[in-house]
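Researcher: Here's a chain I'd like modeled. Treat it as a single chain, no partners, no ligands.
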Amino acid sequence: MTAALAAPATQVCAFMLGCALIHVARAHADRITRLLAVTAVGAAVLVLLVASLDDAPEGGTFDEVTVYAAS
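Model: Modeled as a single isolated chain. Structure tokens:
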């Protein structure tokens, strides 16, 4: 198999595996829905945490005046 066909073949295999897992997991839809919801909320919290840390002022001072001046 050439390098040009390796990536599409991998994507097709991953897609087929995902379809098979969804088909098998239909009996446990409630549990999977809860798991996906918790994962989505956790990912959103982590993204917001990283974004807030990127916007935090440097130098250790974190008062109203510093925050207002930085914005």
